[in-house]
Write a structure and sequence with these properties.
disordered N terminus; membrane; Hydantoin permease; 20 helices; SNS_sf; 474 residues; binds 4-fluoro-L-phenylalanine; mainly alpha; Na/ntran_symport
Length: 474
């Protein structure tokens, strides 16, 4: 990872680390995925469960990943492998998740960049056409592919040159800006007549809407949004100095990530309800609601804010996707002995092919599995299965393979940092989280069989089991 993730001995660099880790966490998952997933899964009840998972599972898993990374001083695969070769597969699953997430993330990243151009060339002048224009755009076979290629190209340049420091610096300015724009969007949305219904949808839970699908969706969203379950935060942890306070760092990254997600929800739903749109608008939500709101605002201010929003969204997406690409690249460099250039080309070529399938599937082109297109397959496999099972494996590894004293030593910096909840954290990691994830995944998969999605998720479990069985080969 970049030089700026290597902290120096002062507070400034500590903030640098937090911002780098938050740069990975805050991305399309918060601003694009969270609102529509909440919308699809009943609103308030989903949000409550999501927050519960973030606090009890996400926080603990992030702390575990940081601790393992810093203890072993290695990135994903190496961290497992150096402790116990039989655990190598857990790292390899993380790398596979990175590859698969990058099979659709750049497609959406491409949309974000395309929308900078679209807003700049008059999208806002015909507010009534914004919805149709999005539908037409993503189902077009060519246009989104070109934007995806451009987005992926930016990732390649950044990771190949090892200059992610530059993008992190851009993130440091643009992320707070994005935050401010989200606040403006929220205030603007809340001022529209009929907007309160949106807040109610988001915050007053109707628990009758909860079923095992909703619970698994909330768990998956927590992992995806916090960049957990694939060794990404382990790699970041390996760059942390021994004297940094891991608990505090984890709390800051978790709070920032969750704050942005909730804010994105507040920015979207009141406006949506005011515009009479259905909360189940799906993946197009942010691309339709935000331009519509700024079109409504009108004038040069509306235009500038819309432009800044999509620039901010693109940069937030980039700071996340470079961390995804880097996980795969560092695996190829460290474990397969490739040069950085070759590693980047190999990884991104596979990603490009996956992205072509993903993008085309939205226009109904290309192969399907159980009636599900490539975009949804990659999303389902990673967000619902790989990341959650990856997080479960991290916990089992820490709880059962590493020594309790070593973990305590690492997390408390040899007794210097007080962490009165250590016992609770340890019990969560060793017993409760693995069992909870197993139950949630099992129930989610079984109920997913109604829609054919269960079969795809089961396939994901099969892939993991297969990887574990042949793990000695890795
Ligand atoms: N957390 C990122 C987002 O919310 O967009 C996505 C992501 C990045 C997931 C890195 C996993 C990861 F390792």
């Amino acid at each position: 990872m970049s030089a700026s993730t290597k902290p120096r001995d002062n507070w400034g660099s500590k903030l640098g680390f937090v911002m780098a880790a938050a740069g990975s966490a805050v991305g399309l998952g918060n601003i694009w995925k969270f609102p529509y997933t909440a919308g699809d899964n009943g609103g308030g009840a989903f949000v409550v469960i999501y927050l519960f998972f973030v606090i009890f599972i996400g926080f603990s898993v992030m702390l575990t990943e940081f601790a393992i990374g810093r203890r072993t001083q290695k990135s994903a695969v190496g961290a497992f492998k150096s402790t116990d070769r039989r655990w190598t597969f857990a790292g390899v699953i993380g790398v596979t998740s990175g590859l698969l997430i990058m099979g659709f993330y750049p497609v959406v990243g491409g949309w974000a960049i395309a929308y900078i151009a679209k807003v700049g060339t008059g999208l806002l002048s015909a507010p009534e056409a914004i919805g149709d224009s999005f539908g037409g755009f993503i189902s077009d076979p060519i246009q989104p592919l070109m934007w995806m290629a451009f987005y992926l190209f930016l990732n390649i340049v950044i990771v190949m040159k090892g200059i992610s420091g530059g993008i992190e610096k851009a993130g440091k300015i643009l992320m707070p800006l994005l935050f401010i724009i989200l606040i403006i969007v929220s205030v603007k949305g809340l001022m529209l007549p009929g907007s309160m219904a949106g807040l109610e949808f988001l915050f007053s839970p109707d628990f009758s809407k909860i079923d095992s699908n909703v619970i698994l969706a909330a768990l998956g969203q927590a992992f995806f949004s916090l960049s957990l379950g694939m060794g990404c935060m382990m790699t970041y942890g390996s760059y942390l100095k021994k004297k940094e306070n891991l608990v505090q760092t984890t709390a800051m990254v978790t709070a920032m990530d969750t704050g942005v997600a909730i804010l994105a929800g507040v920015a979207m739903f009141p406006a949506m309800f005011a515009f009479g749109m259905a909360p189940t608008a799906g993946p197009g939500l942010v691309f339709v609601v935000v331009p519509q709101l700024f079109a409504e605002m009108g004038g040069i201010i509306g235009l500038l804010l819309a432009l800044m929003f999509f620039i901010g969204l693109s940069v937030a997406a980039l700071t996340s996707s470079v961390s995804l690409l880097e996980v795969v690249v560092s695996y190829l460099i460290d474990e397969k002995g490739l040069s950085r250039v070759k590693a980047v080309i190999t990884a991104s070529s596979v990603m490009a092919v996956l992205c072509i399938f993903a993008s085309l599937s939205l226009g109904g082109v290309g192969p399907t599995l159980f009636d599900t297109g490539a975009f949804d397959i990659f999303d389902l496999l990673t967000d619902k299965i790989f990341l959650a099972v990856g997080g479960m494996l991290v916990c089992i590894f820490a709880g059962w393979r590493l020594k309790r004293e070593d973990l305590e030593d690492e997390i408390t910096n040899g007794g210097e940092v007080k962490f009165p909840l250590f016992g609770l954290w340890y019990a969560l990691v060793k017993f409760i989280i693995p069992v909870a994830i197993a139950i949630v995944a099992f129930m989610g998969i079984s109920s997913g069989f109604d829609s054919g999605k269960g079969a795809i998720m089961l396939l994901g479990v099969g892939i993991i089991a297969g990887a574990a069985l042949i793990s000695k080969k890795f």
